[in-house]
């Protein structure tokens, strides 16, 4: 079944702004006795609207196997599912798309691999990077880190006025990422963001489903302020 994944000015229909409200990035650090698929299911039940599968330390076979499991969960709930970095794997397993950083392949190259119907997200830390990504066919941007974070070792903190300038410069959805939790979501209000991306604020919590409910409520409030 083909999912309806939205509209952006000047772009094909691939990615709805409302699907960006609560964007979860996987991390197996806090798995314990659970499976990643089970954690993702709990997150979606609680209100997560978008899933990115990011695993840096799995071999290719294990990566593909786990990605397929997460894809099935997301399909069951009709939640968009993208893979971090690996456009070739995203294409091979028919994921909804890929998310790439500034040190990964360019959005143009990702589009050539994935075709016109898939979602491409790009990390941006400057207005110039954001405009280039949009010009090259990105469907949404992840901007950050907006707060200090221990989840990504090389994350560079982006000032709030830069976040706002990026949101004003592009037509595609923009989400914030990096160090976001229940205690600071509302500090991002008024910048034009469509939502937030979270890792530990969700998957490190003992009750993932409840954490998702809390974060979604706060993200909605942030977006509408």
CATH architecture title: Alpha-Beta Barrel
- Total number of distinct structural domains: 1
Here the CATH topology equals TIM Barrel
Structural class: alpha/beta
Helix content: 25-40%
Q: Specify the number of helices.
A: 8
Number of strands: 8
Helix-strand sequence: EHEHEHEHEHEHEEHH
Instruction: Please give the order of strands in the largest beta sheet.
Output: 1-2-3-4-5-6-7-8
User: Roughly what is the average pLDDT, rounded to an integer?
Assistant: 92
Beginning-to-end CA distance, first to last residue:
35 Å
User: How big is the Rg?
Assistant: 16 Å
CATH class categorisation: Alpha Beta
Binding site for 4-amino-2-methyl-5-(diphosphooxymethyl)pyrimidine: 52-56, 84, 123, 152
Pathway: Cofactor biosynthesis; thiamine diphosphate biosynthesis; thiamine phosphate from 4-amino-2-methyl-5-diphosphomethylpyrimidine and 4-methyl-5-(2-phosphoethyl)-thiazole: step 1/1
GO molecular function: magnesium ion binding; thiamine-phosphate diphosphorylase activity
Domain Thiamine phosphate synthase/TenI: 22-202
Structure notes:
InterPro entries: Aldolase_TIM, ThiamineP_synth_sf, ThiamineP_synth_TenI, TMP_synthase. This protein has one domain (17-224): Aldolase class I (TIM Barrel), CATH 3.20.20.70. The chain is globular. The chain is an alpha/beta fold and 225 residues long. The model is unreliable at 1-11 (pLDDT under 50). The longest helix is centred in the first third of the chain and has 18 residues, at 60-77. It has eight helices and eight strands. The termini are far apart.
């Amino acid at each position: 079944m083909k999912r309806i994944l939205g509209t952006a000015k000047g772009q094909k229909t691939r990615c709805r702004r409302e699907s960006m409200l609560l964007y979860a990035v996987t991390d197996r650090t806090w798995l314990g006795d659970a499976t990643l698929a089970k954690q993702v299911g709990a997150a979606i039940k609680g209100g997560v609207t978008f899933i990115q599968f990011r695993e840096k330390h799995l071999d290719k076979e294990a990566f593909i196997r786990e990605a397929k499991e997460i894809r099935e969960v997301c399909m069951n709930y009709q939640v968009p599912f993208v893979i971090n970095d690996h456009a070739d794997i995203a294409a091979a397993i028919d994921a909804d798309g890929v998310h790439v950083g500034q040190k990964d392949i360019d959005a143009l190259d990702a589009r050539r691999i994935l075709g016109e119907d898939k979602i491409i997200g790009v990390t941006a830390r400057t207005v110039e990077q954001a405009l280039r990504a949009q010009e090259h066919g990105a469907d949404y941007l992840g901007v950050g880190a907006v707060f200090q974070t221990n989840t990504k070792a090389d994350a560079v903190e982006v000032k709030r006025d830069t976040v706002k300038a990026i949101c004003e410069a592009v037509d595609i959805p923009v989400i914030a990422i990096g160090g976001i939790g229940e205690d600071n979501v509302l500090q991002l209000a008024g910048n034009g963001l469509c939502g937030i991306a979270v890792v530990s604020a969700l998957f490190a919590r003992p009750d993932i489903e409840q954490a998702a409910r809390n974060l979604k409520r706060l993200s909605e409030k942030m977006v509408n302020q």
